Amino acid sequence: MMSPMDLERFNADWLQAWSDKDVDRLVGFYSADTVYKDPQMPRGIEGRDALRTYLDTLFASTPPMHYQPETVWKIEGGFCGRWYCDLGKDGKDGKVRGFDLVLLEHDLIKHNEVYVHPLTTGT
User: Fold this and answer.
1) Of 42, 93, 28, nearest in space to 65 by CA
2) How far is CA 93 from the centre of its chain?
3) Sign, CA torsion 86/91/92/97
4) According to DSSP H, which parts of the chain are helical?
5) Which of 34, 73, 77, 96 is 20 to 30 Å apart from 122, CA to CA?
6) Which helix (H) or strand (E) covers residue 79, if one does?
7) How is residue 62 annotated by DSSP?
8) pLDDT on residue 31
9) What own/partner pairs with CB < 8 Å and gap ≥ 24 does 20-27 have?
10) What is the bridge-based pairing of β-strands 108-119 and 30-38?
11) What are phi and psi of 92, to 5 degrees?
């Protein structure tokens, strides 16, 4: 298991891959048998190959996104992380706050659940 500081670095690097929409780099953070859930896929996606297909489609249909990590909490088997995301160039399409539950196995993401909500201007 990584140390708390390593978890912060892992989280920051992982969120940067999301910001960069770098599918190859991003799926490298996940185990081959990962389970991924987000608001668009609440039943989940199983496996790195299915995640890659989902991300290719997602990134082709979304504006630029810039993720900023806020806080990481170490939990048994992984971490929880809260972040902010500006949608569109300079946040012109809005801003969301999100929370990830991340369970790790051999320093790869075995299970990831994403929760988000939009923020109104000034929050």
Assistant:
1) 93
2) 19
3) positive
4) 4-20, 23-27, 48-60
5) 73
6) strand 78-87
7) S
8) 98
9) 21/59, 21/64, 21/65, 23/52, 23/55, 23/56, 23/59, 26/55, 27/51, 27/52, 27/55
10) parallel
11) -65, -20
Neighbour tally for 15: CB within 10 Å: 22
Structure tokens, 61? 């249909």
- What does the block give as tokens for 44? 């989940």
Q: Where are the domains of the chain?
A: 4-119
Two structure tokens written together for 69 = 């990590």
Residue 78 CA, chain-centre distance (Å), reads 14
pLDDT tens track for 23-81: 999 999 999 999 999 999 989 999 999 999 999 999 999 999 999 999 999 999 999 99
3-state secondary structure of 31: strand
- Alpha-carbon gap, residue 14 to 9, rounded angstroms: 8
Q: Please give the CATH number for the structural domain made up of 4-119.
A: 3.10.450.50
In whole angstroms, how large is the CA radius of gyration of the chain?
14
